[in-house]
Amino acid sequence: MKKSIFYHAGCPVCKSAEHDVIDLAGSDNVEIVNIGENKSRIDEAEKSGVQSVPALVTPNGNVLHINFGASMEDVKA
Amino acid sequence: MKKSIFYHAGCPVCKSAEHDVIDLAGSDNVEIVNIGENKSRIDEAEKSGVQSVPALVTPNGNVLHINFGASMEDVKA
Question: In total, how many domains does chain A have?
């Protein structure tokens, strides 16, 4: 199965959601990407439709924005 | 394992998120509750911390608000 990708930026809301997503989907099924640290992947996240973090991009390309930690503008700053 | 509860109100955003959540967590692990139809469960959802739908309440009580379909006030109307 293609993995989901969970984008976050290390914020408290992100970390809490990360635990919950891994509990739900299983750590083998989710790639975790910290776009606060790994800014080279911000562009990819935006192209996938991520508008804020934390967000989960599913294998079929849907974006689930989960709660609200930070906007992409905040992450870039 | 205790199930997660996915609250929704039948809106398009809700239905899309419902499919994604079931794909991620497995239908056996998620109870689906339509609080637009089943208004007797609105109170329970609010007490769990649900502020808008769709939302997933995890077995440990965390609330994941996923995207935004409708506020609880909209659901009650």
Answer: 1
Q: What is the pLDDT of residues A29-43, one digit of tens each?
A: 999 999 999 999 999
**Which of helix, strand or coil describes residue A14?**
helix
CATH number for the domain including B46? 3.40.30.10
User: What residue numbers bound the domain in which A10 lies?
Assistant: 4-76
Separation of alpha carbons B64 and B68, rounded Å: 11
Instruction: Report the complex ipTM.
Output: 0.91
Measured between alpha carbons, how far is A21 from B66 in angstroms, rounded to an integer? 12
Which residues 6-35 of B have a C-beta within 8 angstroms of A?
16-17, 20-21, 23-25, 29
Interchain pair B24, A24: CB under 8 A: yes
Q: Which of A63, A26, A56 is nearest to B26 (CA)?
A: A26
Nearest CA in chain A to B20: A58
pLDDT means per 10 residues, chain A with 77 residues, are: 92 95 96 97 98 97 96 94
Of A16, A25, A62, the CB nearest to B16: A62
CA of A36, closest CA in chain B: separation in Å?
21
